[in-house]
Specification:
Elements lengths: L8 H10 L3 H9 L11 H15 L4 H11 L4 H11 L7 H12 L4 H17 L1 H11 L5 H14 L5 H11 L8 H19 L1 H9 L5 H11 L8 H12 L4 H17 L1 H9 L8 H11 L6
């Protein structure tokens, strides 16, 4: 099917949905695939989900059936549309929705995995008690894709969770601080923690990370969380953790600490630079001072 670029796909898609031609509707959707990800643009997929919601009605059995059909198709774009629709409909069939999200969280397509994590975030936000045992199970799943989905979805949902719910999620994610898979590690410290939990519950995160194991990956993740932009908005509860990490002698941890301190120094120099200056004669932390001075001293900032 030729790619439609003039918006006419919406009329064709709606017509197929109205007559119950799901396979044909998916073919129309696939006509909008891009070369970048092999799926339609996000705006197209969200528009397709709106057309389906408008036709069947929000939260109806008809919409649920259509969403599961899309999620179960071979089309990755249709799978993503199905995930958008199923996130809010967890209550229709919790076990089936959970199974669909699990299957797609382990997709070979990175973009589908992102949409699966987003669907899980929606479920965590709206059905915490029901989905929490699943999140706890996925945090130790054999697949790194699924473990990563548990971390990213939890961090993204943190802003809509209570403090106690965030505490439960953080404790559940504790094993992932030491996870040796690159995909999990890349998404844990700077993103799930620093970009999610830190914004929602900075004091809780500071306490949790200060109790992390001495494993180098755990300490690396803690330092990477402090490299996130949000750390500059809550330095006070994180100051003790920063002090602790600055004394770590392991190369990987040191590099993460340097990144965190430089980011903080650029964002809130008036708060960070005097603290770094105080480490100048500290045998355990003078290396941080030396590194920051080398990177920023030439500009007269230290």
């Amino acid at each position: 099917m030729a790619t439609r670029t003039d918006g006419s796909w919406k009329g064709d898609f709606a017509a197929e949905i109205e007559r119950g031609g799901w396979a044909e509707a998916i073919a129309v959707l696939d006509s909008q695939k891009t070369g970048h990800a092999g799926t339609p643009r996000q705006a197209v997929k969200l528009q397709a989900a709106k057309i389906m919601s408008r036709h069947y009605g929000e939260g109806t059995a008809g919409l649920y059936d259509a969403a599961t059909a899309f999620a179960g198709s071979e089309s990755e774009g249709a799978q993503e549309v199905g995930l958008v629709l199923l996130g809010p409909m967890f209550g229709h069939n919790p076990a089936n929705v959970t199974d669909i999200i699990l299957r797609l969280a382990d997709s070979e397509n990175w973009e589908v995995r992102e949409w699966a994590a987003s669907a899980l975030r929606r479920v965590i936000s709206e059905n915490f008690a029901a989905i929490f045992p699943t999140v706890r199970e996925w945090a130790t799943h054999a697949s790194p894709n699924v473990r990563r989905a548990a971390a990213v979805a939890s961090g993204s949902a943190a802003g809509s969770c209570t403090e106690e719910e965030c505490r439960m999620l953080l404790e559940t994610l504790t094993p992932l601080l030491e996870d040796d898979d690159p995909y999990v590690r890349k998404n844990m410290g700077a993103f799930a923690i620093g970009g999610g939990f830190l914004k929602a519950q900075p004091a809780l995160v500071a306490d949790w990370l200060s109790r992390a194991s001495d494993h180098p990956r755990a300490q690396w993740n803690a330092a990477m969380a402090l490299s996130a932009a949000e750390a500059a908005n809550c330095l006070e509860p994180l100051s003790g953790l920063l002090e602790q990490l600055a004394a770590d002698e392991r190369t990987a941890v040191r590099r993460a600490v340097y990144r965190a301190v430089l980011n903080l120094a650029k964002r809130i120099p008036e708060e960070v630079l005097p603290r770094i200056e105080g480490w100048k004669d500290d045998p355990a932390r003078c290396h941080v001072y030396a590194h920051v001075k080398e990177k920023m001293g030439a500009s007269g900032n230290l």
